Amino acid sequence: MLNNPMIELNDLTEDGKLYFNRRLGLVESLLPCDFETSHACDLQELPNGDLLCVWFAGSDEGNSDVSIVMSRLNAGSDAWTPAVRISDDNGFSEQNPSLFLHPNGELWVMYTAQRARTATEPPEFNLQYTSKIYRKVSRDNGYTWGEAELMFPREGSFCRQKIQILSSGRWIFENWICFNDDTRNGSDITVMNISDDEGATWRSVEVPGSRGRVHCNVIEMAPGKLIGLFRSRAADNIYFAKSDDNGDTWTEPVRTELPNNNSSISAIKLASGKLAIIYNDLRFNDKPDITVWPFERCPVTVAISEDEGRTWPYRRHVETGEGFSGHSNLIRNRRYEYPCIMQAADGSLHAAYSFGNRRTMKFVSFTEQWVTGAE
């Protein structure tokens, strides 16, 4: 765990400094960011102990000034650095970055780029169906980045989770495809992009029955045995699928006991062998074939499973927002959304998420035992 001074919750400010929240018993920080909105972050620990956080920021999602930005928590430091742009193409809205540490030491940032909305051609919903997936490479731990490279040219391609390296050496990169129709993204489908030559070439595998099931988190439970946990466009539940052949074929996604509000989730396998997932603990619908977009995205909750994702008996809120609950006033909370989670080399769990209607990113750090109550 990071070692930081003890503070009360009300003392937290957007200075990037790490604080210890006495009431909750976790480390937290609001990252310094001068952009109007911030959203969809990812975390990556480097071999030297530095911790990186990337997200997209600008005036508003879908606008031409939205770019990928990055903040760094240097090893041994007590504060995140101010966010800086690492991509900037004003013809596109660049979104949903994820970091990948290549075995050769390169650091990749994968992200989407969609046609930016304009005043003369406002979209009825969004322009995600124009998106393609790009990559930038850093060879100095993220201090400088190469030129943008088009990786997945199929229009409508979107990404959110990291490239995973399986025990077989295969790489798997979950994407989903958005279409130009009137379903408000309800027709999105999941595809698994697979590489057996360390990213030189890729082939796509469509997950059957995945319409409306996206943002899949791929986890290898045993050699060749994979599970996937999905966001649901129906705002009903998190969904589960599995593969027994290194991702070549998949079962149709089925509901888990965990709720979902049609917002992003993040899941990992812990060093203990258990699974951890971070998500918004909310659902708004019981019909799996319709699309629902609730405003409510609070609280942020971490859950732990001991049986490969079948049940999730341990759950704890890391963010309760303004504290409102109940059908009539839940909407009074601001949004705390799109969380990501990772386990550091020292065993501690780090998470981050869009804070307070996308004002900035919030970083929190805790342990597995903090979630289960064993600490």
Task: Give a verbal description of the structure.
Keywords: Glycosidase, Hydrolase. Pfam families: BNR_2. The protein is mostly beta strands and 375 residues long. Helix content is 1%, strand content 43%. It has one helix at 368-372, and strands at 6-7, 19-21, 26-30, 37-45, 51-58, 67-73, 84-85, 92-101, 107-115, 132-138, 149-152, 157-159, 164-165, 171-177, 189-195, 203-206, 213-222, 225-232, 237-243, 254-259, 266-269, 275-280, 300-305, 314-319, 337-343, 349-355, 360-366. A 6-stranded mixed β-sheet has the order 1-2-3-27-26-25. Strands 12, 13, 14, 15 and 16 form a 5-stranded antiparallel β-sheet that branches. A hairpin with a 5-residue loop joins strand 25 and strand 26 (349-355). The longest helix has 5 residues, at 368-372. The radius of gyration is 19 Å and the shape is globular.
Percent strand: 35-45%
Query: What is the residue-mean pLDDT, rounded to a whole number?
Result: 95
Q: How many beta-strand segments? A: 27
| Poorly predicted parts | 6-10
TL;DR?
The chain has 375 residues and is mainly β. It is built from 1 helix and 27 strands.
What are the main properties of this structure?
375 residues; mainly beta; 6-stranded mixed sheet; 5-stranded antiparallel sheet; 1 helix; globular
Per-chain topology:
Layout: E1 6-7, E2 19-21, E3 26-30, E4 37-45, E5 51-58, E6 67-73, E7 84-85, E8 92-101, E9 107-115, E10 132-138, E11 149-152, E12 157-159, E13 164-165, E14 171-177, E15 189-195, E16 203-206, E17 213-222, E18 225-232, E19 237-243, E20 254-259, E21 266-269, E22 275-280, E23 300-305, E24 314-319, E25 337-343, E26 349-355, E27 360-366, H1 368-372
Parallel strand pairs: 1-2
Antiparallel strand pairs: 2-3, 3-27, 4-5, 5-6, 6-7, 8-9, 9-10, 10-11, 12-14, 13-14, 14-15, 15-16, 17-18, 18-19, 19-20, 21-22, 22-23, 23-24, 25-26, 26-27
